[in-house]
């Protein structure tokens, strides 16, 4: 199966045009024992939109993304995906719907190539002599080349182990894997942390490319500069509750910090 069979390449209209949300989180609660980690949080994500999740440590950001991506199930409230109510019992079920999470550690196999990382756990096989299954290395290499080209990200050493790549290049490999498997919603957890400024810019540019392809992106960052560089809307959490939501054009970093700390 070629990459193009995985993809819907038409860019979706901007959310301002009244499109149906890709993701609609409605009054979600999550409790751990006596602790309410999420207290009726709601948020929407449209095709071709970047929504930043901001908040201090303990605000509920990680719990919210893990509830969206099937690591946790909500205790109350609903999650709708593409207009249908969903309940993901596992992260695999969320991925099957096209929700991919790229965590800070990226979950890459350092000793393997880009292609091998794209297919990690889902390796393509071909038959030799009609019956001996072997890895289809050509398919993996072709997918790597095509996926990286789609992200306008060019590395010359396609067969090199990803351990040799820079932080920004590794981030691109993790994004490429999600794109190859037709992610419609990408949740990116601190994607620019521990990167130098030129690499941060490259990741911001990758996010703009994904946005232009009509994918929805939830962007989690402590870096307000990056949040203001890529987001359309900012959803602020504080102590498990929704502290506020602002369109980028109608706010500034000072207001977002005040919402985060409750000032």
TrEMBL record:
Q: Does the keyword Cell wall biogenesis/degradation apply?
A: no
Keyword annotations from UniProtKB, A to Z: ATP-binding, Nucleotide-binding
Keyword ATP-binding appears in the UniProt entry? yes
**SMART domains, per this entry?**
AAA
Which Pfam family, giving just one, matches this sequence?
ABC_tran
Gene Ontology molecular function terms on file: ATP binding; ATP hydrolysis activity
InterPro entries listed in its UniProt record: AAA+_ATPase, ABC_carbohydrate_import_ATPase, ABC_transporter-like_ATP-bd, ABC_transporter-like_CS, P-loop_NTPase
Q: ABC transporter domain: which residues?
A: 23-259
Say which family it is in. Answer: Belongs to the ABC transporter superfamily.
The protein depicted here goes by the name: Sugar ABC transporter ATP-binding protein
Q: Which organism is it from?
A: Segnochrobactrum spirostomi
Give the taxonomic lineage as stored in the record. Bacteria, Pseudomonadati, Pseudomonadota, Alphaproteobacteria, Hyphomicrobiales
